[in-house]
Design goal:
Length: 162
């Protein structure tokens, strides 16, 4: 949604916000600003917000879809919980890898800032990978202990790979 911000010099009132661009046919200045001379500018955040929202929604809908598939399965609750946790770790790893790629491509960052953020993201990714490995090991041990039939094992494998 486009946002217009109007600023006043040395005024104690809060600046008005308009969702109409200045070139629209409606009165684009708030009523209180008509008598004073003000500087104004227009900021269109639409593409940026849409991109962030879209990426976030895709990740969330993908994770929700995986969790729904897991919930719909005929597996015991303990296995379902492990499978959900594995899906969450995988999603977090993907998000952090995307953040890492974004930081690497961000030309606005200084070399020092970039290195610091890259190091932090790599540590987070490493932590999630460790947690994912532990959850996968726990899943394997749980499946072995439960002595599941071939159909249930196939269902676990299908859900863990999706």
């Amino acid at each position: 949604m486009p946002i217009s911000l109007y600023t006043k010099t040395a005024s104690s009132s809060v600046p008005s916000v308009s969702t109409k661009p200045p070139n629209t046919t409606t009165n684009s200045k708030p009523e209180s600003d008509k008598t004073s001379s003000n500087a104004s500018f227009y900021v269109d955040l639409s593409p940026f917000v849409k991109e962030l929202t879209s990426a976030s929604e895709k990740g969330e809908s993908s994770l929700l879809s995986k969790k729904e598939k897991i919930d719909e399965s005929s597996l015991p609750t303990g296995l379902k919980d492990l499978l959900k946790r594995i899906a969450e770790y995988r999603e977090k790893i993907k998000e952090k890898q995307q953040e890492l790629q974004d930081v690497m491509n961000d030309s606005a960052l200084s070399d020092e800032e970039r290195k610091t953020r890259i190091d932090a993201l790599q540590k987070e990714i490493s932590s999630y990978n460790t947690a994912l490995s532990q959850a996968m090991l726990q899943l394997s041990e749980t499946v072995d202990q439960m002595d599941l039939d071939d159909k249930a094992v196939a269902e676990v494998m299908s859900l863990v790979m999706s």
